[in-house]
């Protein structure tokens, strides 16, 4: 099934005149079960969201549960109160609605879906996150969508780094001596991460500015460097000689 079909099936919002809506897509080189294990944690969004410093869930972890999220500096907010609307472990769907907080995202609802796909011949995941939200007074629909898209893009990039690291750790468990080409893949990931442009981070709503993705980039870079170091340590002498010969 193609991206457009997934969006039609799971991400059909019906924005009113004073609202805006959009979808963000991310391809991740990690199996669906690994990616979903991070996405589904309504009680621990800080596992991959770089601007969340902490979270407390009221009551049991179930549909209708409410969480209090503490937001790090860099966004025009310090807290957000959010309700779990949908959690489908079979279809890999998470639905969340913001019901309070000291921010301007009123009547915000989002849906995240995770789908299997093959990337470069290995199992990967297609993640789609969509939203609908009121347009704050004094801002346009384009400005509001630009801001929310920037935040979601940062979150999904961080999700990719976290999930791909988990996938590598699983590979090490199954194969303690990974192929040298795995290092080349990690170096490529590092290069792409450092190529993040300021245009993705600049936002026009509130006071958040070009530094929006700094924490996510720094965290992702350190994770990849760590992965490369650990992979080099895991090489056997034969593999090291092979790399030198080439």
UniProtKB/TrEMBL annotation:
The organism's taxonomic lineage, starting at the top: Eukaryota, Viridiplantae, Streptophyta, Embryophyta, Tracheophyta
One Pfam family recorded for the sequence: Polyketide_cyc2
Molecular-function GO term, any one: protein phosphatase inhibitor activity
Similarity section: Belongs to the PYR/PYL/RCAR abscisic acid intracellular receptor family.
Protein name: Abscisic acid receptor PYL9
Secretion signal span: none
Gene Ontology biological process terms from the UniProt entry: abscisic acid-activated signaling pathway
Location(s) in or outside the cell: Cytoplasm; Nucleus
Record InterPro entries: Plant_def-hormone_signal, Polyketide_cyclase/dehydratase, START-like_dom_sf
Native source species: Abeliophyllum distichum
Keyword Membrane set for record: no
Alphabetized Gene3D superfamilies for the sequence: 3.30.530.20
Record's GO cellular component terms: cytoplasm; nucleus
Domain of life the protein comes from: Eukaryota
Predominant location: cytoplasm
Alphabetic keyword roster: Abscisic acid signaling pathway, Cytoplasm, Nucleus, Protein phosphatase inhibitor, Receptor
Coiled-coil regions, chain positions: none
